[in-house]
Amino acid sequence: MTRRVGLLLFDEVEVLDAGGPFEVFSVAGRVAVRRGSAAPFEVVTIGAAGARPVRARGGLRMVPDVGLGDAPGCDVVLVPGGVVDEVEAMPEVSAWLRRTRSRAEVVASVCTGVFVLAAAGLLDERPVTTHWEDVADLRRRWPDLDVRDDVRFLDHGDLATSAGISAGLDLSLHLVGRLTTVELAVATARQMDYQWVPQLG
């Protein structure tokens, strides 16, 4: 089974928040194919404001595969962070997230992407996390949330959140391990020359 990973892109997205998970899921596919299996993931980048190019933080230009209106169904939805004030206020993004939540196996955020999930009403009483610098703001804006500041990521099965920037690599590798095999996740981390220890259970 090939799972489709939908990665949201928007202006001022944090480069590693988006690029890190993209690399993990795409490398996992290459490693699996090299081992004689079908690619377990297909990554589709989805532009919050259409398929026009976005300019990430630091100026990197990124071109989404499709816009929200043409986005295919996704098994995994991942919302990276960055400067999210504009994207969290977009009703079309919130509506898309609510629609995909009902069909996706897991909806996940990296860093301040959790603010976008909160604005869409996707969070509940289960603990969440974000970048250490944004914990106080998340608690202030959504005081009913149980915000943790001492974890790299939290996975509740259908919902997952990670701390800041590089923690998205840890969460993505964890999801590879959960959705395929831990062996493939370990091999993916090895291929990426990234020191990672599985945290399953």
TrEMBL record:
Start and end residues of each DJ-1/PfpI domain: 3-176
InterPro entries in alphabetical order: Class_I_gatase-like, DJ-1/PfpI, INH-QAR
GO biological process: regulation of DNA-templated transcription
Transmembrane portions of the chain: none
Superkingdom classification of source: Bacteria
Coiled coil ranges: none
Gene3D superfamilies: 3.40.50.880
Cited Pfam families: DJ-1_PfpI
Name under which the protein is recorded: DJ-1/PfpI family protein
SUPFAM superfamilies associated with the record: Class I glutamine amidotransferase-like
Source species: Saccharothrix carnea
